[in-house]
Structure formats: structure tokens, C-alpha cells
Amino acid sequence: MRIDILTCLPKLLESPFRESILKRAQDKQLVTVQIHDLRDYTTDAHRTTDDYAFGGGAGMVMMIEPIDRCIQALKAQRTYDEIIYMSPDGELLTQSVANQLSLKEHLILICGHYKGVDERVREHLVTREVSIGDYVLSGGELAAAVLSDAVIRLLPGVLSDESSALTDSFQDGLVAPAVYTRPAEYRGWQVPPVLLSGNPAKIEAWRHENSLDRTKKRRPGLIKED
Ligand code: SAH
Question: Which of 9, 111, 137 to mutate for ligand 1's pocket (most ligand atoms within 8 Å of CB)?
């Protein structure tokens, strides 16, 4: 998989891809993440990527030209499955959206800033718009990092234990069961004894029951009414 991220603040995206699982995924060549500075696609001496809004009002708007030039340069090299604008009013990022995107080969993510991007980017250049939640961030960079993380960890070979992503919350319509590690007792707080029993069938049954209980309490909407 390859993810190209378009931004006017590339530094904001450096560290999320330089650590831990996302770094290892790139080192293992399971994914290529390329950050593009939109200033490199401007034509003026000041490398301007934003301008005042037509009609007035507070806040700058990101111009279409650098975004279009960057997209065209990328499209000349390969075919993209999705060109996604990170947007608070887009389709909500869910595990199911992450699953769908993890099956794609080439993605472009566009990060807005200020008041957002010129609407013509959304009308003519993008194939999809994704939000990471009903709140407004100052830029799309953190949202793009969140989407990339959710997608990359699903790629085969990225997580060391292949089954690990499958046992995470939402994959089977349930939230994940509680997990514990050493010590078995801390300040008198005990680990459920079944987890120390060494009996895989009993442990599996406990985890399933715990998942169901937690889903009913925390995310009752996930349990389908028959
Ligand atoms: N004026 C816009 C918000 C702009 S916020 C509005 O009211 O809808 C600036 C940029 O941050 C956006 O262009 C978008 O790329 C990004 N952004 C903000 N909140 C986001 C969210 N919840 N999910 C994804 N991207 C978001």
C-alpha cells in the first residue's frame, strides 16, 4: 500500500510515522507513506497556499491550485483508488471504513487548514471525505495520521500476531475484553483467576463473556436486536 499525504504543515506529520508500528510497517516495506508539502506546488515567490475567502469573513481558505498540481503530479505516476479530503463533515471514520481502505493500494489524503479548502477541491478533485469525529481540529494532519494508523495496522504482516487486529474492538461487533499483565496481585487488586488457570477453553469463554458484558454496558448500540 502507498499513502500520499498533502499538507501545508509537513512537520506536523513527522513523528507519528517515525515510531513504533507505523515505522516498522514502513521499514518492512508493507506501506510507503509520502508527505507532500503543498508549498512545493505553488507558483509564486512567497509559496502561498491560502488566500482570503471570497465574500469576506474571518479565516483563510486553502487555494485549489497547489492541491490540484500535487494531485495531478501524483496521478501521472500511478492510479489512485481514493482521493480523500479529511473533513469534519465527512463520513465518520469507523472500523468498517478502516477495513475497506486497508484493501486499497494507493490513497491520497488531503489535509485542510484554516477555514478549510476551496470548495472546488471537494467538488472536482476528491472521491471521498472522511471525518475522525464530530469536533473541529485546527488542521487535517492529526486526522490523516489517525486514519493512516487505523488502516496501516490492518495490513497483513504489520502486527506481529496476525490475529491481534481481529481481536480488537469493533471487528466482530463487540468491544475487546479486559486484559491484565503481571503482577497477578497489585495493592490487593486481583487478576480474574480464570486468566491464570492455564485452561484455554475457559479463558476463551471468559473473554467472550467479558466482551459481551462490556459491549452491553459501553456500546449497547453495537448489539443487534433480533
Ligand atoms: N471551517 C471548517 C473547519 C475547518 S478546520 C468547518 O467548520 O467545517 C481545518 C481543517 O482541519 C479542515 O479543512 C480539515 O481538513 C481538518 N479537520 C478538522 N476537523 C476534522 C475532523 N473532525 N476530521 C477530519 N478532519 C478535520
Answer: 137
Reply yes or no: is the peptide bond before residue 183 cis, omega within 30 of 0.
yes
Whether residue 140 has its Cβ less than 6 Å from ligand 1: yes
Mark whether 174 and 130 lie in a shared domain.
Answer: no
Ligand 1: distance of its center to the CA of 98 in Å? 19
Cβ-based neighbour number of residue 32 at 10 Å: 12
The total number of structural domains that make up the chain: 2
Model pLDDT, residue 46: 97
Determine, yes or no, domain membership for 160. Answer: no
What confidence tens digit (pLDDT) does each residue in 155-190 have? 999 998 766 888 888 988 999 999 999 999 999 999
Ligand 1 centre to CA of 121 (Å) is 14
Please write the tens of the pLDDT for every residue from 188-215: 999 999 999 999 999 999 999 999 999 9
88 with 115, same domain: the answer is yes
15: left (phi over 0), alpha (psi -120 to 50) or beta: alpha
Q: At what angle do helices 20-27 and 141-152 cross, to 10 degrees?
A: 60
Q: Which atom of ligand 1 is nearest to the CA of 139?
A: 11
This prediction has a pTM of: 0.96
Compute the distance from residue 152 Cα to the ligand 1 centre, in Å: 22
